[in-house]
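Look at one record.

>
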Amino acid sequence: MAHGDHGHDHDHDHHHDHAHGEQRGPHLDKGHEPGRSDEEIRLAAGAAGLGSGQGGHDHAHGGLRHRPAAGEAPRIHRASAPRRVQVGVITASDTRTDENDTSGRYLAETLQDRGHPVLHRAIVRDEPALVQEAIAAARAAGAEAVIVTGGTGISRRDSTFEAIDGLLAKRIPGFGELFRLLSFQEIGSAAMLSRATAGVTAEGLVLFAVPGSTGACRTALERLILPELGHLVREVTK
């Protein structure tokens, strides 16, 4: 079942309730400091590496422990990742042509606009052998990652999943899980029919398989692939 072509992503705000009252922040040795609220003291102690039952000093180095802020490690990894990834785009479809391949065109143009050269683009029938040949051609052209759109449903002719899954040496289950979560927020329970997947071949090529609709391609590319594309290639080539 095709993913709906939605022009808007629906983000859900997560509200966190912070407990007050008996839950006090850790105080420094001399207790409450004049002119500073309990919250200010708690934040200052947390920044110094105190609290949570752990001492604030690193005895091996004689200094304060550095406690990375949430999300700091992913930001560091992304900062050292390549900003330019060479990509291939393949449309697996029995009906798409150069004239009506809106999804393949969207993927290629958006990747180019974001600074990722598209070295190979092809439209092939939804046949595992043809899809695998197109992937091999993209890799031979120098692609470090390939996005295949189409053929990820459960109909008799949908066989792209099998074609790609057979090439993967390492799977990235989180991609499909997150894609279906985002799709569920957009189209509801029909999202379970998608077999979108991703992984890495034995040769180190990063592969993505996404549904054929332009809305699904937009969700996958904007929300998942582009934010981590350089990071993924960096990890594969380490």
